[in-house]
Amino acid sequence: MQDTLEVEIQEIVDAAHRYQQCLDVEGTSGASNGVVQPANLRESRRALLETLNKWKLIAAGPTEQWEQTTINYCAESCLNWLLQFDIPRLVPLDATTTYSEVAEAAAVPEQELRRIMRFGMTQGLFSEATPGQIVHTPYSAAFATNEDYRQVVLLQTGFFSPMMKCLAEATKAHDAPSSMNTAAFNIAMQTENSFYAHVAKTPELTKRFGSGMRFLAGADDTSPKFLVEYFDWTALGNAHVVDVGGSTGHISAALAKAYPALTFTVQDLPPMIAKANVSQLSPDISGRIEFVPHNFFHPQPETSRDADVFLLRMILNNWTSLKCEEILTNVAAIMRPGAVMLLNNFMLHEPGTVGKRAEALERARDLFQMAAMNGMERDLDGWNELVGKIAGLRIREVIRQPGSSQALIVVDKEAS
Ligand SMILES: C[S@@+](CC[C@H](N)C(=O)[O-])C[C@H]1O[C@@H](n2cnc3c(N)ncnc32)[C@H](O)[C@@H]1O
């Protein structure tokens, strides 16, 4: 045990050393403290947190885990409270303030504010280095300077969290997870609507999801950069891409910018296509992207028959396997041999093959899909099984995002 502990401690020292070296290079302010940070710093932070997390799990027994659960649920509610009252924006970025000043500006009782902020300080939000004098930390300042970050955390703490708490009720309410409207989300929100329909009908959520999408597009794990850079689009020449469930065209636009020889048809449900606006695309790409309303549970239009690529990005994780089979069958039916289907999704690693913190983040996405719409994230076996069910389709190649969880599954149609 002694030897093992010493080896593990050396691991922490090494990880901390690498993190410090990155901070020395990048500096400790500006981009280093922002939500978007240099890749080397992000990697060294992740490595250090992974090692510390391993130690946290070694050190904590059942009692300490129970204590941690207490901290976790308070931390989530405290964060939600601070963001709902926009407290980070009421603390100056470069000066101190007092509880009474912030309480007055936020129109909240000072005593409640003080108690909640002091809990927040145990979680890295704000600091009270001199009694009664409050200053920002980099974490709390990020909410003051980046509204998308504030909105996305409000979404997590105010919408996703209550939804996740209904997982057990959802399991009791349905025998098999085959229906969209028996998900934990339906129970939490007391609605028959699907997740996306509910979001579309709730202006506050629509706004928060817009922020969420912008935020995720900038985060390296979820950025379209992987799709743009890790597939050989140039080799396709003058190719036509059908972007199935392509939303308002942001992915096609990113690809069109990078590859002038490509043209695109973006398909989505009519309300989403109605929001898409060709005139807002820059002139260099606007002539190469068209928008067509199409429900992917219906057969593809004949106009798709000549397409070279069918892109399904972040679509199949939203649906049960049976529904995914319908979507894939509709695309496969119109694909000509030689055309390619690109599935850009997350791919779960095998259990225990990445650090527990990294695996927890991947599996959190999977549980989110379960709770929101009875969807799921899949591992390689899961993708093989799904694609293998569609006659004529064959996975040609799987490209994984280095050090992260996106994957690009290249699917061919065999000549019949
Ligand atoms: C998670 S978003 C992915 C959007 C885009 N592909 C991306 O990677 O950012 C899922 C998309 O599927 C669309 N969608 C949901 N049901 C659909 C259906 N039955 N037919 C077509 N599109 C649908 C939604 O409107 C939404 O734009």
Automatic annotation (TrEMBL):
GO terms for biological process: methylation. Signal peptide: none annotated. InterPro entries: COMT-like, COMT_C, SAM-dependent_MTases_sf, WH-like_DNA-bd_sf, WH_DNA-bd_sf. Keywords: Methyltransferase, S-adenosyl-L-methionine, Transferase. Residues 200-389 form the O-methyltransferase C-terminal domain. Pfam families: Methyltransf_2. SUPFAM superfamilies: S-adenosyl-L-methionine-dependent methyltransferases, Winged helix' DNA-binding domain. The keyword S-adenosyl-L-methionine applies. Coiled coil: none annotated. GO terms for molecular function: O-methyltransferase activity. This is O-methyltransferase C-terminal domain-containing protein. It comes from Exophiala bonariae.
